Amino acid sequence: MAATREELAAIYRRPLLDLVLDAAGVHRAHHAAHTVQRSTLLSIKTGGCPEDCSYCSQSAHHGSELEREELVSLDRVLDEARAAKASGADRFCMGAAWREVRDGEELERVAAMVTAVSDLGLETCATLGMLTPAQARRLHEAGLDYYNHNLDTSPEFYGEIVSTRTYADRLETIAAVRDAGMKVCCGGILGMGERTDDRIGLIHELARLDPPPESVPINALVPIEGTPLQDAPPLPWDEVVRTVATARIAMPTAWIRLAAGRRSLTEEGQALCFLAGANSIFLGDRLLTTANRERSEDETLLAKLGLAEPAPADKATDRAADRPADRLEV
Ligand code: SAM
Ligand code: DTB
Ligand code: SF4
User: Does the CB atom of residue 161 touch ligand 1 within 6 A?
Assistant: First the structure.
């Protein structure tokens, strides 16, 4: 049974090093200790999003200076995916600034991208906004392994951050993803002015999903000029460590990704997060619309920490044979 919110609050508030030590024990009991899963991101449709998420550079509601880009070509996706694979990525994540996917050409173009990336032998992930159950099934059939759809914060704080959709809308898409047979990638953002209790509430909501997400991105806000959160003060590093550690204890088998915002952490701060159970990162010079840490800096850091062993694939490498559509034909 998932821990209660009160139990998670007690864990989160333990003396920091006790918390890290416990989380490290849970991590090492369930995961290879010397490896970090590497994901690479590509924005396949950029900007002009009708949602009003107050952290996001891509919302049409804010005055951020971002060049919009329509859905990119399959060739571009393939070039980027090949380059990601060559530089050691295990998973390729495609993000689109949509409220929801449109059936027909739009869905089919993304499905073709998913199949092509999957055929390269990469795990596939997409984040495209809300999905209907039928769209989730279509993407799974095309070879989509993970769908990223974040809860972002606690249910109580959510309305302060987004007004164009509800927490219940998010949960509905997550249920559709799960019912279609895909793995769920679901996490949140820290440093949006939320209280400690909201960070605990987020972990509680994630851990009580049944089953919990296989992948949990923990983003630290990257402040974007022109958005309502442009001046949000950076969250103290120990709150990031506490969130990672509590998430690790609450979801022992998940990949916990130290996602956006690593540039605002020192190497020492990141090292503590890895010790506390973070075991996945975005590798590559760009996230979706903002800069990531330099790839070479990350390679050096992972080597220094003894975390450079390749991650064990959590799915067979013969991906074409793995797809439900192909299985049906056998
Ligand atoms: N439109 C899709 C959606 O909202 O699900 C996918 C794209 S959206 C960019 C994916 C996630 O990135 C958000 O849920 C949020 O957690 C994270 N994110 C977006 N902007 C961010 C920022 N400025 N700093 C940190 N994380 C951010
Ligand atoms: C997630 O939780 N973090 C990634 C991914 N899912 C799609 C996105 C981070 C975006 C950071 C801001 C940007 O580059 O636009
Ligand atoms: Fe749109 Fe996603 Fe950005 Fe929200 S987070 S504005 S839904 S791209």
Answer: no
Q: Average per-residue pLDDT in the chain?
A: 93
Listed residue (3, 33, 14, 40) closest to 277, CA to CA: 33
Cα 35 to averaged position of ligand 1 atoms, centre (Å): 25
- Tell me how far the alpha carbon of residue 179 lies from the centroid of ligand 2, in angstroms: 24
> Would residue 53 show up in a list of annotated catalytic residues for this protein?
yes
**Mean pLDDT across 219-223:** 97
* pLDDT beyond 90 at 214: yes
Q: Is the pLDDT of residue 61 over 80?
A: yes
Q: What is the pTM of this model?
A: 0.94
Could you give all domains of the chain from N- to C-terminal order, each with its CATH number? 5-25+36-303 (3.20.20.70)
3 state SS for 177-219: HHHCCCEEECCEEECCCCCHHHHHHHHHHHHCCCCCCCEEEEE
Cross-strand bridge partners of residue 280: 37, 257
Q: What average pLDDT does this structure show over 83-103?
A: 96
Work out the number of other CB atoms within 10 angstroms of the CB of residue 306: 11
